[in-house]
Structures are given as C-alpha cells and as structure tokens.
Amino acid sequence: MKKDRRSFIKNSAVGLLGSSLVLPDQIYGKDKILLPKEKVNAPLTPLEVSKDRIIRNDVGLRPYRAEGFVLKKEIEQGKTIIHDYGHGGGGISLSWGTAQKAVDLVEAPKNTTVAVIGCGVIGLSTAILLQKHGYQVIIYTKEMPPQTTSNVAGGFYAAAQAYDSNKITQSFLTQFNESSQISHRIFQDLVGERYGVSWIKNYFLDGDFAFWGGKNLFPGLKIHTDQKLFDFPKVQEVYSLVIQTPKYLQALLDDFHLAGGTIRIQDFQSKEALFQLDENVIMNCTGLGSRQLFNDQKLIPSKGQLHVLLPQKEINYSYVYNGGKDTFYMFPREDGIILGGTAQDGVWSLEPDEKEMNRIFKQHQMIADYLKRS
Predict the structure, then answer these.
(1) What is the DSSP code (8-state) at residue 324?
(2) Which DSSP string corresponds to 134-178?
(3) I need a labelling partner for 145 at 20 to 30 A (CA). Which of 95, 250, 266, 318 fits?
C-alpha cells in the first residue's frame, strides 16, 4: 500500500512458532478465558480529556470493501496467487483467521519457498503460519513496521467496519465468523507482556452491539439500564482483548526472523512485476495496494483517525459507542490512551481532520463529565 510516512507523527524465544500456535485441528476448540481479578463495584475513574495531553495523532487508510475481504486462489502465468486483503477496520481482529484460511489454500510441497507480499499484520501473520506449516518464506514489502498502516491501528479486538451488511453473502458471513473464531483463539495464547495483548473490561454504550464473529468473543456480558456508570439507557459490559500494535508487530517480526524468515524491500508497481519473482506461490497481503496491483476498484480507502493521550494508569476500562458517523471509543494502552474514531470512506488524505478531532473530544469530554458527577 502506498503511504506517506511523513503524514504520521514519529514517534525469547519463538513462542508463537511453538506450542502457542493452534494447529488446524485445534482451532475450533473451546476458548480459554483468563479474566483479570478486579475489585467488586470499583468506581470508574474519569478520563482526563484535554488536547494539551495529546502525544500524537495517528491517521491511516483502511483497505475497505463493502462486499467484505477477498480470500481466494487463482492461477496466472504459472504462478499461484492467494489473495487475503480488504479487511477494512477488522484487519488485526481477523488477521490470524484469514491468514489460516489463506495458508490452507497452499498446495505446494513442504519446504517450498513462498513469497508473501506485504509486511503489515496480515502479511506477518500469514508468513508465520506458513513457517509453522513447514514452508520457507520471503516477505517482499515496500514498508516495514513501524511504517505500515497496521502500526497506526487502534488494536481493540472487534472486526468493525469490515463490510456493508447489505452487500455481503451468507457464504462470506460464514467465512467471516469462522475467521473471527480462529483469530480470537490464537490471540488468547498471546496474552502477556511480550506481544502486548491483554484483557480489558469494556462498555458498549449504544446497548445494541452486534458482537461480530460471535458472542463468545466478548465474555462476561452484563446489561446495565440504571445509568449509574454512563448516561445511556442501555449499556453492555463485556471483556475484550486489546492489542498494542507497535509492540505486537515488533514481536511478530522477531518471531519471523528467529524462524529463519527473510525480508526484501521491493515496491511492485504492477501485477506483471510479481510474475518475475522466483517463487511460484505468492500470498497477496498488500491491503489497499491491491487496488492498483490487481485493479480491484471495489477496494477503497476508509480514513481512520486516532488521537493518543498521555497514559493514565488508573484508566482500567474502555468504552465504545457504535453510532455510524458519530462513533467514538476509548481504550488505554501502555503507550497512551487511544481516542477515536472515524471512518471516512473514499478519503485519501493522511492529514488529521480538525472537525473530526473536535467531535471526538467533545464526546469523550461528555463521558468524563458524567463520570465525575457519578
């Protein structure tokens, strides 16, 4: 994917390749839920909402397809090309699941060298699973972490803004749900400091969250209708996973290298350039870059904008209001408090939108003010 890095504010062992990865015959096993111990009825500390606490603004272009992600195999000029792109706002959440399904399409003999195009979360997940299945892997990429779009993703586990429910098929929805289950199960085994994956108590403020991928991915459901915590008539309390994307992607890079993987910096301007590679199996994980490489005009950018505040260690909860253009969310990470969110379809600019910033801060201030009065 083409991306202007200047538009962003700059800022062990191979555990994943060992027993922590779930083998194909295990991926539908019962979830292992390890929830943190908390004080009963502990009050929620209000967030310190102030623009002078901003440490960076992150803007990225999600690779969005209204019909959902592309996961398919095709043969052209003697090359097997397996596509896995177009995840919209669900790239991290779906990553292991669609990667597993893409790897299942590979029919080459073990120890064959496979090319992976792209080094974001989809490319790295695919590369690691290929290694796990006995293949040699070369990643070809224009950008490496921390310069990929995946690095500026929020990392809250929910495959949001991944498709238009009016334009998908039942077969796609089945594939989406299966991928969500696979991915979530693998993320559970990565909880801990090394990968930057953790559980958090979350509140869905709109009271009608769709539970994308299955309700079991959001355990501990409680319904609040007394407005004691938030000024909303119905709030769904659950536990959710949060992935600290910079730390997580670096850990995946380390795992890939420790397992003998190779990375080559290369920018492919056309599909024909891919056919010049020595490898006969090519995994296309280029995200928005697939629009140009494979002329997928249904693939469009969906601009996402995050504002990261100074860490506030007493914030041990998150919340999401899923309201279309009025969507906003907050969750704490080790590197700061993540405030969002936007989804501006068809917008290619990587500059922060001040109008959207003001909207986001106004909504979070409203939440903080209510918690102060509680």
Answers:
(1) G
(2) T-EEEEEES--TTSSGGGGS--BS--TTS--TTT--HHHHHHHHH
(3) 318
In CATH, 43-373 is 3.40.50.720: yes
Instruction: Report d(CA 205, CA 161) in Å as an integer.
Output: 17
Kindly give the pairing relationship between strand 317-321 and strand 113-117: unpaired
**Which of 18, 14, 23, 92 has the alpha carbon at shortest distance from 255?**
14
Tokens of 366: 């409203």
Question: What would the pLDDT profile of 51-94 be if each residue is shown by its tens digit?
Answer: 999 999 999 999 999 999 999 999 999 999 999 999 999 999 99
Opening angle at CA 96, ends 145 and 240, nearest 5: 90
**In degrees, to the nearest 5, what angle opens at C-alpha 209 toward C-alphas 205 and 211?**
140
Per-residue tokens: 216: 């079991």
CB atoms within 10 A of CB 134: 10
pTM attached to this predicted model:
0.88
